[in-house]
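Let's study today's protein:

:::
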Amino acid sequence: MKNVKQILKIAIYLVVITSIVILLSLQPSVSFYLSNKSHDITVIIGVILIIVVTTAITLFVDKKAITENIIEQMRRLKGKFIWKPSVPIKSNKATIQPIINYPKDYKMDFRNFNINGMVEGVEAFKQAVIKFVNTPKNKYKIYEGTKYGTEHSLFTVNGSEEFARQANSLAEQIVDYYGEWIDKIYCIKRNGHYLIIEIKVHGIAETLCVEIPNFDKRSQERKNKT
C-alpha cells in the first residue's frame, strides 16, 4: 500500500509539471498562431514546439525543487538513502589496534536471536557494531551511565536531509565508542530494512562493509510467524 502511494505521488508530480509546461506555453503559442500570416503549418508547429521545449527547460532550470522532489519520492519508494561526507569521520584515538586482536565473543544468529559458537577479530567487530547500532542509548539499565548504544531512526526516517543528519551523528557515536579499532567511516547507506556502513579498520587493506539489520523489524517478522 505504501509503495502504491509513493507511485501515485510521483505520477501526480509528473502530471503537474506537464500541465504547468502546457499552460505556460499556451499564451505565447496562441499569440504566435494568431499573428502568423503565412499559415505555413510546418512553421507553426515548429515554433510551437520550440516554445514548449523552451518553457520546459526554463521550468526545470528555475524550479529544481520540483525535480528534486521527484527524485526524493523515488528514494522513498525504493527505501534507499545514502550519507557520504566530504571528509570521512576519523578516530581521535592516539593509537589504533589491529582488528585481528578484537576480543572473542559469542556468535549471534541475528535472524533467530540465538547463540551459535564463537567469533573473534573482524567478525566479532562487525557483530559488535550491529548490536551497538541496534541498542537505543539509555534504554536498558545495564548500560546506564555508559556511552553504549545509539540515538537514531535511520531505519524509518523518510527524507534525505534528515537521513544525512542522523547518519553523521551515528558515525560519530560509533567512532567515539570503537575509536581504538576504527580508522575512519566513509559512508552509511540504507537499503530497505538494512543499513550498510563502510568502515576502515587497522590491520587489513580492504574497507569493511558492515550490513546491519533492523532488529525491531526482525522481531516483528518473528511475531507474525508465530
